[in-house]
Amino acid sequence: MSKGKTLDVYYKNKHVGTLAEMADRRIAFQYDREWIQTGFSISPLSLPLSNDVFVPDERSRDRFGGLFGVFADSLPDSWGELLLDRYLNSIGISRESVSTLDRLAYIGTSGMGALEYVPAKNTDFDVIGSRLNFDEIARECNELLSLRPSNQIDILYRLGGSSGGTRPKVFLSEQGKEWIVKFPAKKDPNISGKREYDYSLCAKKSGIIMTETKLVDSTICEGYFKTERFDRQNGVKIFTSTFAGILEADFRSPSCDYETFMKLTMALTKDNYADKEQMFKIMCFNVFTHNNDDHTKNFSFQYTEDYGWRLAPAYDLTYSDTYWGEHTTSVNGKGKAILDDDLIYIGTTSGIKESICKEYIREIKANTQDLAKYINGKYPNRKDLSVKERVLELHNEKPGLIVNSLPQDARSVKPQKVIASRKK
Fold first, then answer.
1. What is the pLDDT of residue 379?
2. What is the CA 211 to chain-centroid distance, rounded?
């Protein structure tokens, strides 16, 4: 591949290949010759192992900034993109002057999953998670979401600039584990953190595999949802790609059915039965708990040398709506009014016995009764004040900055390296 505006891609210090920007803003990719001999296809449907120069189709410009989906997975979504844009603006760099490859370079070694981009434009430094004031972070997040300038943008960016999803979040390292802590989005109720935590407990009770979850105490809301990262295990990065990335699918609009998800799971995992059961349980759980925002970025696969492709632990399981009032991923062609028979159809056509499908449906329905207070909107002890009102109230009563909660030596650190001891 000719050298122009390029970026090299690495995995575990091995050169995977090279990205190059074309004149029409699409980003071509070519594998390294040695990787072809010793590595694996990082996107089996789009990037088979060969010496070809791969060019994404024209739709990639709108969907993934001209990238193949597997590389777009490394880029932050709404919240992280907002932080990156605000951070760059704070140091005099306009959004318009930053290309897709520039954004990957800013992510560098700190993206979700295991791919790294060289040369990186690192802006990281370590932050001791246990010393953070989460209520103050929530206040600063609210400032950003309200389009008001935050004087803590550099701290926020270092804590969450490569994060995905729409809700504000930060990364941190505690007790040898890597964590994500979520904060309410602008329109979220003050129960959103407690709600997602309760959803996680219910999902685990229903046999759905998730990482460890906790609820962080707060003085201004019901608490903040905290979950262990599944793309980090014992300090090692795990190769991870979303369904959107593998399917080159637009996650912003309805584009798939759970039947497609099942077929993809069967194809990548070589018909692993445990993963099919997991996908079936997650589908049922989403339907029974009004998790309508079940788009293609809310499901992932992981690849390891020992096990090949496997379904990643479940995540983003919580009450959610869509503006059209239906599931983003349909069930047997339906986005609403989904029947047990529709769920059973997805299961049985994937090789799960009907009797087992019915058993899982009964079990998950019974367990999700614990979440009725959220699903029916009758959560007791719901506070009258919104999160926005509470953080403003806290700021008025106890003004202070996030930086006041950081170690003294971290307060004066200039932008050189990103994010909360993530050791990415």
1. 55
2. 14
Tokens found for residue 27: 């980003």
The span from the CA of 339 to the CA of 120, in Å, is 49
Residues paired with 10 in a beta bridge: 15, 116
**222-272, pLDDT tens digit by residue?**
999 999 999 999 889 999 999 999 999 988 778 899 999 999 999 999 999
Pair 180, 93: CB distance under 8 Å: no
What token pair was written down for 351? 């090789």
Helix (H) or strand (E) holding 261: helix 258-268
Q: What is the pLDDT of residues 311-361, one digit of tens each?
A: 999 999 999 988 788 999 999 999 999 999 999 999 999 999 999 999 999
The residues, any chain, with a CB within 8 Å of residue 47's CB and separated by 6 or more, are 29, 31, 41, 54, 68, 70
Cα separation, 55 vs 67, in Å, equals 9
CA 395 to chain centroid, in Å, comes to 29
Token look-up 């996908």 returns: 279
Burial of 344 (0-12, 13-18, 19+ CB in 10 A): buried
Taking the whole predicted model, whether its pTM rises above 0.85 is answered as: no
Tell me if the bond preceding 313 is cis, omega within 30° of 0. Answer: no
Looking at this protein, which amino acid is placed at residue 417? K
Structure tokens at 45: 């449907």
